[in-house]
Amino acid sequence: MHILYPVIKKISKSGKMGTMRYNKPEKGTPESFYHLNIIKSNGQKLDFSYLKGKKVILVNTASDCGYTRQYEELQRLHEKLGDRVAIIAVPANDFGSQEKGNDAEITQFCQLNFGLTFPVAKKTTVIKNSAQHRVFQWLTNASCNGWNDHAPDWNFSKYIVDENGNLTHYFGPSISPMDTEFIKAVEN
Protein backbone atom coordinates (compact mmCIF):
# COMPACT_ATOMS: atom_id res chain seq x y z
CA MET A 1 0.00 0.00 0.00
CA HIS A 2 2.81 2.42 0.87
CA ILE A 3 4.37 1.98 -2.58
CA LEU A 4 1.16 3.23 -4.15
CA TYR A 5 1.11 6.50 -2.15
CA PRO A 6 2.46 8.75 -4.95
CA VAL A 7 -0.09 7.36 -7.41
CA ILE A 8 -2.98 7.60 -4.94
CA LYS A 9 -1.98 11.16 -4.05
CA LYS A 10 -1.94 12.29 -7.68
CA ILE A 11 -5.22 10.60 -8.64
CA SER A 12 -7.21 11.61 -5.57
CA LYS A 13 -6.09 15.24 -5.29
CA SER A 14 -8.76 16.28 -7.79
CA GLY A 15 -11.64 14.53 -5.97
CA LYS A 16 -13.24 14.72 -2.55
CA MET A 17 -9.99 13.62 -0.89
CA GLY A 18 -8.37 16.81 -2.21
CA THR A 19 -10.83 19.11 -0.46
CA MET A 20 -9.47 22.35 0.98
CA ARG A 21 -11.58 24.60 3.19
CA TYR A 22 -10.50 27.76 4.92
CA ASN A 23 -11.81 30.60 7.02
CA LYS A 24 -10.39 33.95 8.00
CA PRO A 25 -11.66 34.36 11.56
CA GLU A 26 -12.95 37.81 12.42
CA LYS A 27 -13.74 36.99 16.02
CA GLY A 28 -13.11 34.20 18.48
CA THR A 29 -14.72 30.79 18.34
CA PRO A 30 -18.00 29.99 20.17
CA GLU A 31 -16.14 27.40 22.29
CA SER A 32 -12.50 27.77 23.22
CA PHE A 33 -10.04 25.38 21.61
CA TYR A 34 -7.83 25.86 24.65
CA HIS A 35 -10.30 24.14 27.00
CA LEU A 36 -9.75 20.88 25.10
CA ASN A 37 -7.20 18.15 25.72
CA ILE A 38 -6.15 14.82 24.34
CA ILE A 39 -4.51 11.80 25.92
CA LYS A 40 -1.20 10.89 24.30
CA SER A 41 -0.39 7.27 23.50
CA ASN A 42 1.84 7.14 26.61
CA GLY A 43 -1.18 8.00 28.80
CA GLN A 44 -0.13 11.60 29.53
CA LYS A 45 -2.73 14.33 29.14
CA LEU A 46 -1.94 17.13 26.66
CA ASP A 47 -3.86 20.26 27.67
CA PHE A 48 -4.35 22.47 24.64
CA SER A 49 -3.98 25.55 26.88
CA TYR A 50 -0.23 24.87 26.63
CA LEU A 51 -0.46 25.36 22.85
CA LYS A 52 -1.48 29.04 23.01
CA GLY A 53 0.63 31.12 20.65
CA LYS A 54 1.38 28.19 18.32
CA LYS A 55 -0.24 26.91 15.17
CA VAL A 56 -1.65 23.42 15.71
CA ILE A 57 -2.03 20.73 13.06
CA LEU A 58 -4.34 17.86 14.00
CA VAL A 59 -4.25 14.84 11.68
CA ASN A 60 -6.34 11.68 11.94
CA THR A 61 -3.96 8.86 11.05
CA ALA A 62 -3.75 5.13 10.30
CA SER A 63 -0.79 2.77 9.92
CA ASP A 64 -2.08 0.70 7.00
CA CYS A 65 -3.34 3.39 4.63
CA GLY A 66 -2.23 4.57 1.22
CA TYR A 67 -1.54 7.96 2.83
CA THR A 68 0.58 6.59 5.71
CA ARG A 69 3.76 7.99 4.08
CA GLN A 70 2.44 11.41 5.12
CA TYR A 71 3.85 10.63 8.58
CA GLU A 72 7.28 11.15 7.00
CA GLU A 73 6.20 14.49 5.52
CA LEU A 74 4.66 15.59 8.82
CA GLN A 75 7.92 14.75 10.61
CA ARG A 76 9.89 16.83 8.07
CA LEU A 77 7.48 19.71 8.62
CA HIS A 78 7.85 19.33 12.40
CA GLU A 79 11.65 19.46 12.07
CA LYS A 80 11.48 22.49 9.76
CA LEU A 81 9.06 24.56 11.86
CA GLY A 82 10.14 23.46 15.33
CA ASP A 83 8.32 24.94 18.31
CA ARG A 84 6.27 27.38 16.21
CA VAL A 85 3.87 24.59 15.22
CA ALA A 86 2.47 21.69 17.23
CA ILE A 87 1.58 18.60 15.19
CA ILE A 88 -0.63 15.97 16.80
CA ALA A 89 -1.32 12.61 15.15
CA VAL A 90 -4.68 11.13 16.16
CA PRO A 91 -4.89 7.44 15.19
CA ALA A 92 -8.34 6.06 14.37
CA ASN A 93 -9.70 2.84 12.91
CA ASP A 94 -12.68 4.65 11.34
CA PHE A 95 -11.85 4.26 7.66
CA GLY A 96 -11.35 0.86 6.07
CA SER A 97 -10.16 -0.71 9.36
CA GLN A 98 -6.68 0.62 8.54
CA GLU A 99 -5.55 1.14 12.15
CA LYS A 100 -5.88 -2.20 13.89
CA GLY A 101 -2.94 -1.78 16.28
CA ASN A 102 -3.11 -0.82 19.94
CA ASP A 103 -1.53 2.40 21.24
CA ALA A 104 1.88 0.84 21.95
CA GLU A 105 2.02 -0.81 18.51
CA ILE A 106 1.01 2.42 16.76
CA THR A 107 3.65 4.47 18.59
CA GLN A 108 6.34 1.88 17.89
CA PHE A 109 5.34 1.77 14.20
CA CYS A 110 5.57 5.57 13.94
CA GLN A 111 8.93 5.80 15.68
CA LEU A 112 10.56 2.87 13.86
CA ASN A 113 9.31 3.70 10.37
CA PHE A 114 9.19 7.50 10.40
CA GLY A 115 11.22 8.65 13.42
CA LEU A 116 8.23 10.58 14.75
CA THR A 117 9.08 13.04 17.50
CA PHE A 118 5.73 14.87 17.68
CA PRO A 119 2.86 13.61 19.88
CA VAL A 120 0.72 10.63 18.90
CA ALA A 121 -2.62 10.48 20.71
CA LYS A 122 -4.35 7.37 21.99
CA LYS A 123 -6.40 5.69 19.28
CA THR A 124 -9.89 7.17 19.19
CA THR A 125 -12.94 7.87 17.01
CA VAL A 126 -12.84 10.89 14.67
CA ILE A 127 -15.98 10.38 12.58
CA LYS A 128 -19.27 11.96 13.60
CA ASN A 129 -21.09 9.57 15.90
CA SER A 130 -21.76 9.20 19.63
CA ALA A 131 -18.18 7.99 20.26
CA GLN A 132 -16.46 10.88 18.42
CA HIS A 133 -13.58 12.33 20.45
CA ARG A 134 -14.30 15.76 21.94
CA VAL A 135 -11.47 17.38 19.96
CA PHE A 136 -12.99 16.16 16.69
CA GLN A 137 -16.44 17.26 17.85
CA TRP A 138 -14.96 20.76 18.11
CA LEU A 139 -13.16 20.52 14.75
CA THR A 140 -16.26 19.28 12.88
CA ASN A 141 -19.05 21.33 14.43
CA ALA A 142 -19.60 24.95 13.38
CA SER A 143 -21.43 25.70 16.62
CA CYS A 144 -18.14 24.96 18.42
CA ASN A 145 -15.44 26.23 16.01
CA GLY A 146 -17.39 29.04 14.31
CA TRP A 147 -17.59 27.81 10.70
CA ASN A 148 -16.66 24.21 9.84
CA ASP A 149 -18.95 21.17 9.86
CA HIS A 150 -16.70 19.08 7.60
CA ALA A 151 -15.68 15.76 9.16
CA PRO A 152 -12.59 13.87 7.97
CA ASP A 153 -13.04 12.39 4.49
CA TRP A 154 -10.55 9.58 5.21
CA ASN A 155 -7.32 8.94 7.11
CA PHE A 156 -4.84 11.84 7.04
CA SER A 157 -7.38 14.65 6.94
CA LYS A 158 -5.68 17.73 8.37
CA TYR A 159 -7.06 20.61 10.46
CA ILE A 160 -5.07 23.78 11.20
CA VAL A 161 -5.77 25.94 14.25
CA ASP A 162 -4.09 29.36 14.45
CA GLU A 163 -2.11 30.89 17.32
CA ASN A 164 -5.31 32.31 18.83
CA GLY A 165 -7.24 29.03 18.89
CA ASN A 166 -9.26 29.61 15.71
CA LEU A 167 -9.80 26.78 13.25
CA THR A 168 -8.57 28.22 9.96
CA HIS A 169 -8.18 25.32 7.51
CA TYR A 170 -9.25 21.83 6.59
CA PHE A 171 -7.18 19.83 4.08
CA GLY A 172 -8.33 16.50 2.69
CA PRO A 173 -6.17 13.38 2.83
CA SER A 174 -4.65 13.69 -0.63
CA ILE A 175 -3.24 17.14 0.14
CA SER A 176 0.36 16.52 1.16
CA PRO A 177 1.76 18.27 4.24
CA MET A 178 4.50 19.47 1.85
CA ASP A 179 1.97 20.94 -0.64
CA THR A 180 2.54 24.64 -1.31
CA GLU A 181 -0.98 25.59 -0.18
CA PHE A 182 -0.63 23.60 3.03
CA ILE A 183 2.76 25.14 3.86
CA LYS A 184 1.38 28.61 3.14
CA ALA A 185 -1.56 27.98 5.50
CA VAL A 186 0.79 26.85 8.26
CA GLU A 187 3.34 29.64 7.84
CA ASN A 188 0.94 32.59 7.39
Which percent range describes the beta-strand content? 15-25%
Strand order of the largest sheet: 1-7-6-4-5
Structural class: alpha+beta
Spans where pLDDT lies below 50 across 5 or more residues: none
Shape: globular
Radius of gyration: 15 Å
| Helix coverage percent | 25-40%
CATH architecture: 3-Layer(aba) Sandwich
CATH class: Alpha Beta
- Figure out the total of helices: 6
- How many angstroms separate the termini? 33 Å
| Biggest beta-sheet profile | 5 strands, mixed
Protein described:
By secondary structure, the chain is an alpha+beta fold. It has a single domain (2-187), classed as Glutaredoxin. The protein has 6 helices and 7 strands. The strands form 2 sheets. The chain has a 5-stranded mixed β-sheet, covered by helices on one side. Strand 2 (37-39) and strand 3 form a beta hairpin. It is globular. The protein starts with a helix and ends with a helix.
